[in-house]
Amino acid sequence: MTTLTAQPPAPLLDRLTQLARPRETELFLARPLSALLAMHSVELLRARREHFGRRVLLFAPLYVANACMNDCSYCGFRRSSRVRRQRLGPGAVLREAELLAERGHRSLDLVAGEVPRDVFIDSVARVVDAILRRTAIERIHLNLGVLTDAQFRRLRDAGAVGYHLYQETYDRETYAKVHRAGPKSAMEPRLEAIARAHAAGFERIGLGVLLGLAPLTDELALLAAHAEWLAEQAPGVRLGFSLPRIQRVDEACDFQAPVGVDDEAFLKALLFLRLKFPRAELTVTTRERADLRDRTLAFGVTKLSAGVSTAPGGYGHSDDATPQFSIHDERSLAEVAEAVRASGLEPVVS
Predict the structure, then answer these.
(1) DSSP reduced 3-state for 334
(2) Domains and CATH numbers, the chain
(3) Which of 49, 52, 137, 332 is the most exposed place for a label (fewest CB within 10 A)?
(4) What is the pTM of this model?
(5) Helical axes 216-233 vs 12-19, angle rounded to 10°
């Protein structure tokens, strides 16, 4: 007698493609921004009032290392780059955190190039524990790439509460083209890892795509499907989204975004996510101009970085720190907070 076995599950991207609703996304993005705002103004106000009140969280990224095992063509930390590699020791990371705390920050995103080795992850866990015990920082999110279940658990046990894992693009061909080497070149493990991060105890999960790599309609539809899949796998997950646009990296990198995403398309994409996921945090980083970031507050954005450096040791005024990308909003925490107040909202730091 032949023993029947269950068929292996379809690759997750195939499942997400089945779940995605690109036609719905296309129709939304095809409408003028002014028409979308008029049509959804009540929903937009309700989403903020019911789930966030007037609160807008201000935070800073803290880059602890620019070494990376990946060779992503759009990134300043790509392994083929000849930049000077830096990895801050525990004392240096603690000093950076103390500087940010002195400036008023209480929420950090700890960021590094992707080096998924136990020795590095253990050092990050010790740093997370030290920052939370010895500084005024109250909340730490992490952006370290795909990790093992045990590594995720060690970081969560150290006290970090959120994990960000951006897919960058959901287009198979583009993904393979721009992620040329390293662990990140495997697309499927990255798609699945966010559920494992949540299973390891991270309550807050950040998703996103790098705008400009592939057509916006398809990317948004699959990002939404990915978030819906995660919500099914992990009831109670606190979702967050970020939609960074490709920015200039350095003199040696001539990468050009294959797809243009202008300001209006960017704002419509933010509005799409806010309406579809009214409880989700929506983040805009200093990749964007100050005037545009201020404008995004009217589209439901709830989280802004402020007073930012994207280089290891950058807050201590390191002369040879190499940034991951150029920033376009150099305002201090106090200046961004004032802009939030001017919009009728309340800046908070934790």
Answers:
(1) helix
(2) 60-348 (3.20.20.70)
(3) 49
(4) 0.93
(5) 110
